[in-house]
Amino acid sequence: MAMFKTRHQSVDDLQTLPRNNPCAQCGTPIPLPEWIEQGEGRAAYLWHCYACDYQFEAVAYFRDGDDGGHALAA
Q1: Three-state DSSP class for 14?
Q2: What DSSP designation does 23 have?
Q3: Across all residues in the chain, what is the average pLDDT?
Q4: Could you tell me the pLDDT band of residue 3, with boundaries at 50, 70 and 90?
Q5: The whole model's pTM is what?
Q6: Cα dist. 68→16, 37, 51, 62, 71 in Å?
Q7: Distance CA 49, CA 32 (A)
Q8: Among residues of the chain, what percentage have pLDDT more than 90?
Q9: In terms of Cα–Cα distance, which of 32, 30, 29 is closest to 18?
Q10: Could you tell me which residues come within 8 angstroms of residue 7 by beta carbon, excluding any fewer than 6 positions away?
Q11: What long-range pairs does 65-70 form, CB within 8 A, spacing at least 24?
Q12: DSSP class of residue 17?
């Protein structure tokens, strides 16, 4: 599992990313995750709030064979 900085190849890539996640400390919406780590059946997102400089990780777990990208939890 490698962690990588978000780089978007197409508009479709941007549409599948979580957006405007509220900061876990101050509640300010964060437009896009700063880093993404994908593994089998899960994706971890690193969020960085520039309003209060807080960083946190959110993890989404996916069902086996779920092609729709619908997370069970995040």
Answers
A1: helix
A2: P
A3: 78
A4: very low
A5: 0.65
A6: 10, 18, 33, 9, 9
A7: 10
A8: 45
A9: 32
A10: none
A11: 69/16
A12: S
CA 35 to chain centre: 7
How many angstroms separate the CA atoms of 62 and 74, rounded? 10
pLDDT at 4: 45
**Residue 13: its pLDDT value, please?**
56
Whole-angstrom CA distances from 65 to 17, 49, 61, 71 are 19, 33, 12, 12
Structure token pair of residue 42: 């899960």
If residue 73 lies in a helix (H) or strand (E), which one and from where to where?
strand 71-73
d(CA 35, CA 44): 8
- β-partners of residue 29 are 22
